[in-house]
Design goal:
By secondary structure, the protein is α+β, with helices and mostly antiparallel strands. Helices cover 37% and strands 18% of the residues. It is globular and about 105 Å long. The structure holds one RNA strand.
Amino acid sequence: MNAATGDDREQERPARYDARAIEAKWQAVWAAEKTWEVASPGEPGFDPEKPKAYVLVMLPYPSGEPHVGHLKVYSVGDAIAHYRRRNGYRVLQPMGYDSFGLPAENHAIRTGEHPRISTERSIASFRRQFLDWGVSIDWSRELSTSAPDYYRWTQWIFLRLFEAGLAYRTEAAVQWCPKDQTVLANEQVIDGRCERCGTEVVPKKLEQWYFRITDYADRLLADFDRLESWPEHVVTMQRNWIGRSEGAEAVFRCEEPGIDFPVFTTRPDTLYGATFFVLAPEHPELDRLIEGTGNADEVREYVAAALRQTTGERGDEDREKTGVRLERTVVNPVNGESIPMFVADYVLMEYGTGAIMAVPAHDQRDFEFARKFDLPIRQVVAPADGSEVPAGEAFVTQSEDVRIVNSGDLDGLTPAGAKRKIIDELEAEGRGRLAVNYRLRDWLLSRQRYWGCPIPIVHCPECGSVPVPDDQLPVELPDIEDYRPKGKSPLATASDWVETTCPRCDGPGRRETDTMDTFVDSSWYFLRYLDPRNTALPFDRRIADHWMPVDQYIGGVEHAILHLLYARFFTKALADAGLIGVQEPFANLFTQGMITRDGAKMSKSKGNVVDPAEYVSRYGADTARTYVCFMGPPDRGGDWVDEGVDGVQRFLSRLWRLAAELPSDADRAGAFDRDWQRGTSGPVRELLAKSHWAIDKATRDFERDFQFNTVIAAVMELVNDAYRLRGELGTDDGARALAFAAATAGSLIFPFAPHLGSEVWEMVEGGRVWEVPWPAADEELLAKDVITLVVQVNGKLRDRIEVPADADEARILELVHASERLDAYLDGREPVKEIVVPGRLVNLVVR
RNA sequence: GCCGGAGUGGCGGAAUGGCAGACGCGAUCGACUCAAAAUCGAUUGUCCGAAAGGACGUGUGGGUUCGAGUCCCACCUCCGGUACCA
């Protein structure tokens, strides 16, 4: 008979956990009292006693409705924010929208609706849902990057970079997306396809705006040391993307018509093995080189064909090598040898100098090319033990157990030694030098699209590219009739807007009609949050220096390179301009894993999309939020399972009922009294100890890389124990223990289920849980008098014994030897070794 | 190819070198109910055994250790990133 709840309370039908009512109640409190607003130094309400914590989730692109990825990232971010607040920090958690961008513009092309209208609609629904989820945001700082009072400062910063020589315009081969009709940055081309629409990109020669991010390559690498905690793989990805490689530049001279061709090589030690020389089809000296030679037309034809290829086709490694031999030769600077020249599309203009020395014996690509064109292959690196190298492939090795051969005075040296010697020689003769090369290229920022931040430049036939003066900012985006891109920016059709006067000479000028890549907008938004209503500057340096860096940044790993690299670059450039003190924007980074459904990425075409709003209205925000944190470690992905949501709902209901069905207030007063707690025994003590265990476990797992799944599991255990012990707790002490357990569970679950946590706390203790410090476990209640020790024989579990917690090794062994169970396993043998791990186990080793 | 990450019950996942499988889902049984749902409780790695108990068990093969899911070596599979980068 289960009599625990069988009192007359049941006559009035037990109330049920009404998540929506509870959530509306607390959201109203937070909105009315502006609970999550936080002051900067000098503002009223600023509390200098508390340390600051800037907790930031990557700003969303507002398109349609938030999806589960947003639910997860804000659930994680908010849990961290709440945890920090209750640990005594002044937490800033702002919100904004990355509201320029292609989807809104494409929508405008389809429907004719102005992107501003559809964007505002999306922002409204994002805002509504974030409020509905009860995220603890300082809404007074809300911003959107497409608002003139925001992009005014994006333009202002662009002009500072322009003045510093970090923004420039030049003609170069760029990646063009034929569908979106715009150029793309290298970072936005994935496997030769447009990151946004998946169309194959094609090369195109255009005059475009760039940021000189390559100037910062070394600092971007070195300053990984300044970060507190970033996922190692993100750092590695950025390292690889920057792609620093050390080597040498060597100059090969073509006597006729007299052109020096520098090449970059990471293997100057193999210079003697160079048997031919290859130029990229785009090489600027090619025309001059072939002028008047017998096969100039053939070469031109090859080049034209190469340029027509999509980036994907050209990048295909498996394709057979192609190329054309030029009727020219170059001289190898180390041995004076004349070697034939080729043009081939496997050499890229964007990397190095667009020309290579080919060492077929030790480079797979050169090897394939040499085979195809029947060129000599000269081995210059050999295993130190004199063994043969495989014939059908290039001999490529990082090993130092090799020696240089067939290379004059380099013979017998290791590659490292040969590199040093050859670079010294090249430098002495002025035919080369030590060189460092990067994979990273300058950031192409102009886009031939409408819905972006206008570039504040006027083109003047007299003065060139002239910056718009600061006092004329913002250069506002004009309204236009037709959004369709036509190979140039739709802005070009707004002739009233385009035609202007030159700020420098007052003559006629034309506005720059390209807009900025939206990644520019999001490269500094974390600074605007700090001083969002400043009308004189993008932000006040003193305020920014107070809050920066972001203490905890949270977002998807898909931004590991793009956004995070750009934002790091911007921060350094702004620091160099004296606008801010920090060198790195994000001290700690947490990347959350992607939620799938039925094991697959969610997509409309698969019909497996989870709409968070649907779950929030059915189960409540607390259930949805707690569920995404409970699925597994938040930095890993997880599969959305409806039954799992039910499980979390069940748990939250149990917690609510535990609080709702507590005995009357009078019986349970003093539940938090430590002296009383320490004096208890039996089931009362057991439940109190479990409560303190949960506090300790939750706190440790919170600190340990945000292991939210086990934090929540600990609270579940506490609630389960409370139910299990409830029947044995019919005394006043029992009522107090239950009250303490329920209040503690509410307090610990609050970062994930803030509404329920507040409600439970209010029901049990009264007051506001977010104003109560994060609980600390009582060591004395954590400690046990009697502990169970595991006894092993030869590493196999054979017995358990109860020992006093303070028993020493001798006493433990005495108890072990008293065990009759063990005799069978020992079989009369004397242990040769007895290992005692206090508090853990005993292992008897017998032979 | 290169660089990361991960392989543990029917499923998601727990385990500072020390009781493998916490917690949740699912499943089975029981209580309540006319019945069902909800709720509460119990059981739930595999094999042998009536039971007591025993053997096996963390992708594979070896190693270190009193003791290995955890550390080392070699390999396999999956996932992510990246790639004619000279």
